[in-house]
Design goal:
Layout: E1 2-4, H1 11-16, E2 24-27, E3 30-33, H2 39-56, E4 62-66, E5 70-72, E6 75-77, E7 81-85, E8 107-111, H3 118-130, E9 135-140, E10 145-150, E11 156-159, H4 176-181
Parallel strand pairs: 8-9
Antiparallel strand pairs: 1-3, 2-3, 2-6, 4-7, 5-6, 7-8, 9-10, 10-11
Length: about 190
């Protein structure tokens, strides 16, 4: 992540700026730019979003949005995957998904890129938990592990064949070995 130095902005002023690729994030007055996703990151993000949506969307339990801007408190972040319980999606009157989400996801998933600083990414997850998220994952493709965060207990490092926790009500059983197995496509 690179930090942009500029005059002090409010969250509202930041949200008026044009979107960039890769996305910029606003955390407590500081603007950072996410790194450009590479192959492993993109594969894990796409496959994990699909797997979650496969078991949640048709029953209207939850939905996993990749790269969705979530603005709350003094932050505007773009998690790699933002999972919202169906009843928390702020649908428009016509039933469509809105462009603006002014709340944190219930489950925030970040996939660590080599150029990211782990503590900055962990800080994003922790801020989501402090503002209403129930669960956070930090997926590390190099270490092939997942650091799991909850609101009410200490983080847990999960690897190999251990089953990863998901939001209550979602029937999905994944292990780190399962997730990182998706990287083998050839």
């Amino acid at each position: 992540m690179t930090t942009a130095t500029s005059k002090s902005l409010t969250l509202e002023e930041f949200l008026q700026l044009p979107e960039t690729k890769p996305a910029r994030e606003f955390i407590a007055g500081e603007i950072t730019q996410k790194p450009m996703p590479k192959g492993r990151h993109s594969r894990l993000q796409g496959k994990l979003s699909s797997e979650i949506n496969l078991v949640t969307e048709s029953q209207k339990i939850a939905y996993a949005f990749p790269e969705l801007r979530c603005s709350f408190n003094d932050r505007s972040i773009v998690p790699d995957i933002a999972v919202f319980r169906w009843q928390n999606i702020p649908f428009l009157d016509n039933g469509q998904v809105p462009d603006q989400f002014a709340l944190p996801p219930k489950w925030v998933i970040e996939i660590l890129s080599p150029e990211q600083k782990p503590n900055q990414v962990i800080g994003k997850i922790v801020s989501c938990l402090e503002n209403g998220s129930e669960l956070g994952w930090l997926i590390d493709p190099d270490d092939q592990s997942v650091l799991v965060f909850w609101r009410d207990r200490a983080p847990q490092l999960i690897s190999n064949h251990q089953v990863l926790p998901v939001l209550e009500g979602i029937e999905l059983e994944l292990t780190p070995n399962h997730i990182f197995g998706w990287l083998k496509m050839g």
